[in-house]
Design brief:
The complex is a heterodimer of chains A (485) and B (477).
Chain A (H helix, E strand, L loop, with lengths): L2 H7 E12 L38 H13 L3 E2 L2 E2 L1 E5 L9 E5 L5 E10 L2 E14 L3 E3 L11 E3 L6 E7 L6 H18 L11 E11 L9 E4 L4 H20 L7 E6 L4 E7 L9 E2 L6 E2 L2 H9 L5 H12 L3 H7 L3 H13 L3 H18 L11 H12 L5 H14 L3 H8 L7 H14 L1 H8 L6 H11 L6 H12 L1
Parallel strand pairs in A: 12-13
Antiparallel strand pairs in A: 1-10, 1-11, 2-6, 3-16, 4-5, 4-15, 6-7, 7-10, 8-9, 11-12, 13-14
Helix pairs in contact in A: 3-4, 6-7, 8-9, 8-10, 9-10, 13-15, 13-16, 15-16
Chain B lengths: L7 H9 L5 H19 L2 E4 L1 H16 L11 E5 L26 H8 L3 E6 L33 H9 L4 E6 L5 H7 L2 E4 L19 E6 L2 H11 L17 H5 L7 E5 L8 H16 L3 E5 L7 H16 L18 H12 L2 H14 L5 H24 L2 E5 L15 H5 L6 H6 L3 E8 L5 E8 L4 H15 L1
Helix pairs in contact in B: 2-3, 2-5, 5-6, 10-12, 10-13
The chains are: A alpha+beta (485), B alpha/beta (477).
């Protein structure tokens, strides 16, 4: 059976469960810091250590961030939601249960729009719920690691939201696009840094396949450990092909949890349905129902930043950007903020867009830097664009000044001042240079006069050279034409 | 001074008149406790250093003419499920035999801030599960009234020390009757306040939605004073109430004439004759003081025990999961794998009653059983609470017996858990409804065993409850 045939005959059904760490300063049920990289077991207290007698108290900013995320995903926020205990034993779960939400999550019924190959699709968001994170079991890196596992509880009690999608995706590309869009929305809201390397964004996938045209879903497998965008796509492609293979060989897909191994690129069975945990959920008696009044909800709404889709549209309308440019410039909140500051400081937003996307991003990328690391303040880039637009700076001179701006962070005008690089637009001064150039090149003057106007470029080049690049090129052109005329 | 019979009022006036210092008092109290404790095994450990340091502070405050606090110099015992910073707190369990908490329960923090002297930690049923204090890993407590008999449970220790005179007041905990039943068995006052009135922060959880911290005293005033000091909103406990704490001492002196008392008929069937007679005699006494007495009905009472043992075991199965041998719990030496270590630790560490309740609770929360058991029990709980709120539309308070029978002999009911559970048949409804209730001594049986009457009032109506209790106490003194 060839792979191309099976891919056509079958359709995958994919739903994602995404855990996102909220960017609060403190943990969800205590006042311990959420900072990353502290020595093991130092960001802890009786509450997040799950010591006997300790009780959780819900962190208000965590609720507000969860609600912002939910609103950004188009969800309906429940006026009353319930925390529930999810019971299981594990050494990095000191309470013996996770405090999560079960049948009454904070928000439901959202939607995320994705675009794959020019086609727009709506992916349903089933629910957004809040929960606390567990600690970390460390199996490697210690002298006696083969014998012992170490537990670091710093992460314990870090606020998370879990975003569960509907099984609305049909390809790994759609899943990739969904996760990308989700990440972008959450970053824009400022509710999470979504740093996958630090585990701020974690993804599990529910995958099944069915013969194309069949309505009933196939048996699904849950695939875990999809800790990068690339792994998500590779794991899904592998798993889809594996399930098709099982069916094609006359077998049945079994309901199970599978673990993706990035080293082999394969998924392997972790536990079967029979061994699935019974989490024995019940309402958390230590916490009151979470009530979100209309007043609080509208306050949270009012504090929401502009979302990427809205900002894209606005960039197109307000600054006349092309679709593609608006897309690129809104890929992160930081980049779009930078552009907007530069655009406002410039006389030509479209030119500002080109400089941000072209020269600036190119240089930053080459240095492995992000827009937030840019040594050039957005206002200075805007000034550079203004100088060009006003004709005070030639494109060539601008290109020469730009690396100096990168190196020093100084404004273009300051560099020009310092290095005497001001553009020469004085016709008297330019006339003298022109006369010298014309006098020194009688052969080319002859050629021009006999109709070979292309030598104009030669004259401009000579003038620029003589003026050390400071001559105003437009003016030079005009004056040359007059003089040679 | 008779150290075994001291009241808070006597301590206050003694300190004021400089008849004794707090340090002298603490010394004597510790000495007495040390001498008397072997009879009952009520204290698991004394903390002389802590008590003496606290006493020195009280003396210093008095010497400087500062207010020394409502509990200045008062020797207090604390049940071992209530955490004390730096002082081993075992909860009556082998699993926590070496557990030293790094923080104080809010109630302990407050009673010490009010000048109270913590003398030591008392015995109790393991994780507060039991009605006779025979489920302690550190041996049973004997009832000071009759050493062959149980003191009740699970707060057998806190009740016994107050009855024995080895503490003036004590802090216990109540989930289904664990304060009131031992108070009645030992002949002292025991108060279960409204749920949320006293912070649970630092009370080792048995069943979170039912757990209360409450005081024991040899009289109503002393118990009320300890509640006064420990009650009030605590930001560390989300379920603690914002309602202001009334002045209980002033409230309890108000007259009871014209108050309406309800006798729920369901609580007077199937109890020992003498118990019924003593409670009715107390009710007659209140009638003489001008109270009006009417019969009321709490129709869902019959379902209380089933409902209670589903909810409390469900919550317990989750609350006790953390004692897994990974961190502070005493770990079994056996077990090659993680799962084996869990099993060995918990198998060796928990006593029979805890295991029984963990298994029951795990079962009722399991997939496929949740709706039939836990969810239904929650609905029944609402009906029981509604019974009470309807009754309190007609009456100010309810009076019932605390337990169907007085203190029984050690070992008498250990073979039959169901028989044991019936000791709490009249007390668990108050916990399910979250209303304040208390046990007030109302006489002794022919063989000299104390009997308690239970007074129940509406949410946060502790003043009403204390008024009746105080009026009765004054009348029979």
């Amino acid at each position: 059976m060839s792979a191309t045939r099976t891919a056509v005959d079958y359709e995958a059904v994919i739903g994602l469960e995404v855990h996102v760490q909220l960017a609060t300063k403190t943990k969800i049920f205590c006042g311990c810091p959420t900072s990353f990289g502290a020595p093991p077991n130092t960001n802890v207290c009786p509450v997040c250590l799950g010591l006997p007698g300790a009780l959780p108290v819900l962190n208000k900013p965590a609720v507000e961030m969860a609600v912002q995320a939910a609103l950004a995903l188009g969800c309906q926020v429940r006026p009353s939601s319930i925390f529930a205990r999810k019971n299981y034993f594990y050494p990095d779960l000191p309470k013996g249960y996770q405090i999560s939400q079960y049948d009454k999550p904070v928000a439901e019924h959202g939607v995320v729009e994705i675009e794959v190959n020019g086609v727009t699709k709506r992916i349903g968001v089933t629910r957004v719920h809040m929960e606390d994170d567990a600690g970390k079991s460390i199996h490697e890196g210690f002298k006696d690691s083969p014998l012992n596992t170490y537990v670091d509880l710093n992460r314990c009690g870090t606020p998370l939201i879990e975003i569960v999608s509907e099984p609305d995706m049909r390809t790994s590309d759609e899943a990739y696009a969904y996760l990308t869009e989700l990440k972008q929305i959450l970053e824009f809201c400022g509710v999470s840094t979504c740093d996958m390397e630090k585990g701020h964004l974690r993804c599990d996938a529910n995958v099944s396949v069915r013969p194309r045209g069949q309505e009933k879903f196939g048996t699904k497998a849950e695939v875990k450990n999809l800790n990068s965008f690339r792994f998500l796509k590779m794991a899904l492609d592998y798993e889809i092909e594996r399930q098709i293979g099982v069916i094609e060989e006359g077998g049945k897909v079994v309901q199970e949890t599978r673990l993706y191994n990035p080293n082999t690129g394969e998924t392997a069975s972790m536990r079967s349905k029979e061994h699935a945990h019974d989490y024995r959920y019940f309402p958390e008696p230590d916490l009151l129902p979470l009530k979100i009044s209309d007043k609080w909800l509208s306050e949270i709404k009012a504090a929401m930043p502009e979302l990427p889709a809205a900002r894209r549209t606005r960039f197109i309308e307000q600054y006349g950007l092309r679709d593609y440019d608006a897309q690129v410039l809104t890929s992160t909140r930081e980049l779009s903020d930078y552009f907007e500051r530069a655009a406002k400081a410039s006389a030509d937003p479209k030119l500002a867009a080109n400089w941000v996307m072209g020269d600036l991003m190119g240089e930053l990328k080459a240095d492995g830097k992000e827009i937030t690391d840019s040594p050039i303040p957005a206002e200075n880039l805007g000034e550079l664009v203004t100088l060009i637009a006003k004709g005070e700076l030639s494109g060539k001179l601008a290109k020469a000044i730009f690396p100096k701006m990168l190196a020093t962070g100084d404004a273009a005008s300051a560099i020009m001042e310092r290095e005497g690089l001001k553009q020469i637009s004085d016709t008297g001064a330019l006339g003298a240079i022109l006369d010298e150039v014309i006098a020194a090149n009688p052969k080319q003057v002859e050629q021009y006069k006999s109709g070979k106007t292309t030598v104009m470029g030669f004259f401009v080049g000579q003038v620029m050279k003589a003026s050390k690049g400071q001559a105003n090129p437009a003016l030079v052109n005009q004056m040359l034409k007059d003089k040679l005329g | 001074m008779d150290i075994a019979k001291l009241t808070i009022g006597e301590i206050r006036s003694g300190l004021k008149a400089k008849r004794f210092s707090a340090k002298e008092l603490a010394g004597q109290a510790l000495q007495f406790a040390e001498a008397e404790n072997p009879k009952t095994n009520a204290y698991l450990r004394l903390c002389p250093e802590r008590a003496m340091q606290a006493a020195e502070k009280v003396d210093a405050a008095i010497a400087e003419g500062k207010g020394a606090g409502l509990l200045a110099g008062v020797p207090v015992a604390v049940k071992d499920v209530i955490l004390t910073e730096g002082l081993v707190s075992t909860c009556g369990s082998k699993l926590l035999e070496r557990y030293v908490p790094p923080y104080n329960a809010t109630a302990v923090e407050r009673l010490e801030a009010a000048g109270g002297l913590v003398l030591g930690k008392t015995n109790c049923d393991e994780f507060a599960m039991g009605s006779s204090n025979e489920n302690s890993a550190y041996g049973p407590v004997r009832n000071p009234v009759d050493l062959e008999r149980v003191p009740g449970g699970s707060s057998g220790g806190p009740a016994a020390v107050v009855a024995q005179g080895t503490a003036v007041v004590s802090l216990g905990s109540d989930t289904g009757g664990s304060i009131r039943q031992p108070a009645s068995f030992c002949g002292v006052v025991g108060v279960t306040p409204t749920y949320g009135r006293v912070s649970r922060y630092g009370l080792v959880a048995f069943a979170s939605s039912l757990d209360h911290i409450g005081p024991f005293g040899r009289n109503v005033e002393d118990a009320a004073l300890l509640l006064q000091v420990t009650a009030g909103r605590d930001p560390m406990d989300s379920t603690s109430a914002f309602a202001p704490v009334p002045d209980y001492l002033a409230e309890m002196e108000k007259p009871v004439k014209g108050m309406k008392i309800g006798l729920p008929k369901e609580y007077f069937a199937g109890l020992a004759r003498e118990t019924g007679d003593l409670v009715m005699a107390a009710v007659d006494q209140l009638k003489k003081l001008g109270c009006e007495v009417v019969e009321v009905s709490l129709p869902h009472t019959d379902y209380a025990i089933s409902c209670y043992y589903i909810i409390c075991t469900a919550e317990a199965s989750s609350n006790l999961a953390r004692y897994d041998g990974v961190r502070y719990t005493t770990r079994s030496e056996k077990g090659e794998t993680l799962i084996d270590m869990y099993r060995a630790t918990r198998g060796e560490g928990f006593g029979a009653e805890c295991k029984r309740r963990i298994m029951l609770g795990t079962y009722v929360l399991s997939a496929g059983y949740y709706d039939a058991y836990y969810l239904k029990a929650q609905r029944v709980r609402n009906l029981i609470a509604r019974d009470f709120s309807q009754a309190f539309e007609k009456v100010d308070a309810l009076i019932t017996p605390v337990s169907p029978f007085p203190a029984f002999k050690l070992g008498e009911k250990m073979a039959d858990p169901m028989e044991m559970y019936l000791s709490d048949i009249y007390t668990i409804t108050g916990d399910l409804a979250g209303i304040p209730c208390m046990s007030v001594p109302c006489g002794v049986t022919g063989t000299g065993l104390p009997v308690g009457m239970q007074i129940l009032a509406n949410h946060f109506a502790e003043p009403t409850m204390f008024r009746l209790a105080r009026a009765y106490e004054r009348a029979v003194q």
